[in-house]
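Q&A log
Question type: sequence-to-structure
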Amino acid sequence: MKGIIFDMDGVLVDAMPYHCKALQIAIKQMTNIDIDDRTIFLLEGMPADEMIKEIFRRKGYDNNPYYFSIVDKIHNLKKEILKQILIVKPINGVRELIRELDCLKAIVSGAARQEVEDIIYKTFDREKFDVVITGDDLDEGKPNPDPFETALERMNLKPQEALVVENAPLGVQAANKAGIECIVTLNNTPLKISDFEGLVEHESIFPDTKSVISFLKEYSEKNC
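Response status: OK
Response body:
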């Protein structure tokens, strides 16, 4: 049997805009720096503290130790803001898709285990997923291949026996490094097809999760 590995935010649930907003507010409150949506979505999948550091680097604060000294404070503030604004809802068509796929199914997310488990229990039947990998299980996040390699190990699959469904360039990079075929669903991201240039073929990029349902069902019927 083969398997399908899903990223969570932006693929299964429409939570990424809230993560983006919470981080923007936290950074603005702590530093008075404005961060655009695109910058955050390009870094989606990176551990939160590393994402904040990378944002500061891209803003030209590489040599300013103050900004890097408050990364943990920004991260904690972001988590508190997120609790207040987060509304979790599944991407259109996802519940039916997960229920109908016959292959092994995994979730790979860089979020904390408690957050991931809460979303799964509220949004899906937990038993529908054979493996759940969270940030708590990982030494390194995307674009390192460790998240997907860990999923393969726990699913007892080889790279060629799995398919990854992602929505962010760093996630695609991680899948490529792990040697796993990857498709992309854009959904509500501000990113464009051009942001995935050189990472995945254009025909493997879908406008949303709903449009990829028939592809995944066919994959499941042929391989699982």
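Response note: Strands lie at 3-7, 104-108, 131-133, 162-166, 181-185, 205-206.
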